[in-house]
Amino acid sequence: MKKVITLLILLATITPTNAQSEVTGEDELGSWFMYFGTNKIAEKWSIHTEAQFRYYETADNFNQLLLRTGANYHINPDAIATIGYGYIDTDPTFLGSLKEANLAEHRIFEQFILKNKVWEFKFEHRYRLEQRFISQTDILSDPEQDLGRTEHRARYRLQVTLPLTDIFFLNFYDEIFINLQNEAFGQNRLYAAVGVNVTDNLSMQFGYLRNDFRTTDYDRLQLGVVFNTDLRGIFKKKE
Length: 239
Description:
Elements: H1 2-24, E1 29-40, E2 45-57, E3 60-76, E4 79-90, E5 103-118, E6 121-135, E7 137-138, E8 142-146, E9 149-163, E10 168-179, E11 185-197, E12 202-213, E13 217-227, E14 229-230, H2 232-235
């Protein structure tokens, strides 16, 4: 009888954990497909462009669309200030677990980047503040009710790039998210990738991201494309 009771207690402990993993997709290897661009329009100014498609599974089971743009002011080659806007559409469900409808977010951000080099290692420090305006509905209780909210957070990312040759490089970063309301810790992202310089303005990265939240952890494969352009000729006045 004692063995039966012990077995029931173990099952009661294990089952919620497995159920939680099934709901959140924590056990799946997801994927992020990303594009980043710095488009120069003047000696000191450029436009940031970005698009990300995120999936709970490898190229399947949509999780999030992120579109972001901003105005960059290049103080010098190693210091950049940015103000920008992002739109984020998120499906918080996994495999049809319809607890919430999609979340739509409008985001304003302010950012400052500092760069430096130690031997062959290129360091980049990115400081970012975000004002998040989130719209949410509960499709099970009241689809017409908007459970919108406003949140604020700070982010810091330390990135290290190591050139291997003129073509290949390694890229690493760790980024922490700090909530400015409620519990301070939001998430932490640890990333490692192999990069390829296709041309002077085009590069690609193939990497792995470990995304840790307070209660869940996700593993994500990443494919990133960076394409920088010089648009100053378009903006020059014809003489």
